[in-house]
């Protein structure tokens, strides 16, 4: 009964989270990581039913006014933290945004192991006892001995489900995050990128067992960094987008063969680029080298008071909106993160 009540409570919690999912997606500060595979979400507590004094005929004694709650207020009247696993959160995101399952293109290269119950053994734990096979062996023995067919198994009649460990091959994938850290990209823009990257990671990890992540920052030059540096870097100066695309191209060439890996570059920028010539170079690298090798290239343009937003227009003007390997999104503020995720992941590539 307790398990059933706990299951119903979990269903209520998930229903509340799903109902308010857009708010949680847009405001990353409402989610707190709890270790590697869980998050805690701040949400109002669930109302707990209580007895109240009635104005009608009642049974009972004691002081109290009509409508007053019987007993002290329960703990948990304020917002509480409720934990969810990342796979549960990914399932809610996929359901609410109607995200299709990913269709991998790379070979299966990551090995994992699974136990399959494919045979029957003479020994094993009681929990794996195979009743039908045990019953059959008992009848067979009793019939051979000329006994009346009464089901009284002995030890040698017992049969148990047995397993065989199989090697499975999972699809390997890599996310390559690229972010413009030039002077026009402020803390607000970087916070949007951090929040959106969390949800992208959550979804893609639910689709791939083997997922690697690489990080590139760029202004006039590009360099690879770790995750913490990626979100904390403060730079100034101009932007050469081609420097980031050249480094992305090199990382793919050196480490991630498109025949074996599913590749997802995500580039976030405010759309400023130093020159029209560099924009032409960037588009050429993207068209001739990166797009043919990746599952999908995603460009997210985060609006900035100091950015012109031209690069989004340049990409749209060159590729149109028909290129299946390129997804683009305009992110004006936190409220656009929800739609941006759907723009990026809604193709199921």
Note the topology.
Layout: H1 2-19, H2 21-26, E1 31-34, E2 38-43, E3 80-85, H3 86-96, E4 108-121, H4 131-144, E5 160-180, H5 187-207, E6 210-218, E7 222-225, H6 227-232, H7 241-255, E8 261-269, H8 276-290, E9 297-302, H9 310-319, E10 326-331, H10 337-345
Parallel strand pairs: 5-6, 5-8, 8-9, 9-10
Antiparallel strand pairs: 1-2, 2-3, 4-5, 6-7
Give a verbal description of the structure.
The chain is of the alpha/beta class. The protein folds into three domains: 55 residues, no CATH class; 57 residues, no CATH class; 176 residues, von Willebrand factor, type A domain (Rossmann fold, 3-Layer(aba) Sandwich), CATH 3.40.50.410. Helix content is 36%, strand content 24%. It contains ten helices and ten strands. The strands form two sheets. Strands 4, 5, 6, 7, 8, 9 and 10 form a seven-stranded mixed sheet that branches. The radius of gyration is 29 Å and the shape is elongated.
């Amino acid at each position: 009964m307790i398990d059933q009540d706990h299951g119903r409570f979990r269903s209520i919690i998930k229903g509340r989270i799903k109902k308010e999912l857009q708010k949680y997606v847009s405001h990353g500060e409402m989610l707190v990581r709890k270790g590697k595979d869980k998050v805690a979400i701040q949400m109002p507590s669930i109302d707990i039913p209580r007895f109240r004094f009635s104005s009608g005929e009642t049974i009972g004694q004691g002081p109290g006014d009509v409508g007053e709650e019987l007993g002290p207020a329960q703990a948990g009247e304020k917002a509480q933290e409720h934990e969810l696993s990342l796979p549960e959160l990914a399932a809610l995101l996929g359901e609410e945004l109607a995200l299709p399952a990913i269709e991998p293109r790379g070979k299966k290269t990551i090995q994992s192991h699974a136990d399959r119950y494919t045979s029957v053994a003479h020994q094993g734990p009681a929990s794996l006892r195979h009743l039908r096979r045990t019953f059959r062996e008992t009848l067979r023995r009793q019939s051979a001995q000329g006994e009346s067919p009464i089901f009284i198994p002995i030890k040698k009649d017992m049969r148990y489900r047995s397993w065989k460990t199989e090697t499975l091959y999972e699809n390997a994938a890599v996310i390559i995050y690229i972010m413009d850290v030039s002077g026009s990209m402020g803390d607000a823009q970087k916070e949007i990128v951090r929040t959106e990257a969390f949800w992208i990671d959550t979804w893609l990890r639910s689709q791939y067992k083997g997922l690697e992540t690489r990080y590139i920052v760029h202004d006039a030059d590009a360099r690879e960094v770790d995750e913490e540096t990626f979100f904390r870097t403060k730079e100034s100066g101009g932007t050469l987008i081609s420097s980031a695309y050249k480094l992305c191209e090199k990382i793919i060439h050196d480490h991630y063969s498109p025949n074996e890996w599913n590749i997802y570059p995500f580039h976030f920028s405010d759309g400023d680029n130093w020159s029209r010539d560099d924009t032409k170079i960037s588009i050429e690298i993207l068209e001739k080298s990166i797009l043919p090798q990746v599952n999908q290239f995603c460009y997210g343009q985060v609006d900035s008071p100091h950015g012109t937003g031209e690069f989004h227009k340049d990409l749209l003007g060159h590729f149109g909106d028909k290129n299946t390997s390129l997804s683009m999104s305009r992110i004006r503020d936190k409220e656009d993160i929800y739609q941006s995720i759907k723009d990026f992941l809604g193709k199921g590539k």
